[in-house]
Specification:
Length: 164
Amino acid sequence: MAETQDKDLVKRTLEGDQHAFGELVERYQGLALGIARKYLRTEELAEDAAQEAFLRAYEALDRLHDPVRFGHWISRIVRNISLNQQRQVPRKTVSLNELDEAGVQLPSVAPVDPTRTELLQRIRDLAHHLPEPYKEVFELRYAGDNSCQWIANFLGLSQGTVTT
């Protein structure tokens, strides 16, 4: 039997079938955790972010315009939650003097090439202004470090389209 499509699972969930949403969670929990891990420091925080994303998705499921794109939608939700959590976690800083006093050997760092830094910032700025379909592929490829084949499968596009 063919795997149930996301749109059918969304429809069944909206009709009151809680098991259908459980299937969506099973299908996308790995993706959600993977995204959360990229932004958050601990497994516990990543699991919390993924769980929160599914809770929010369930509560807002009736506002999902295109049920076929549930995977994309949940990935955006978990990404936004992770970024918000990342901003809220205070970062502990340690001075270089403290490291030196503790006897920590720091590796030598090559000088930063200002031209490269400017180029990378310009690429990020331009990517921010891409139209949504291109921006999505760009983020999945470069921010998410996913292969073109994976992105094509995830978005339901041909690999050639994603590569282009």
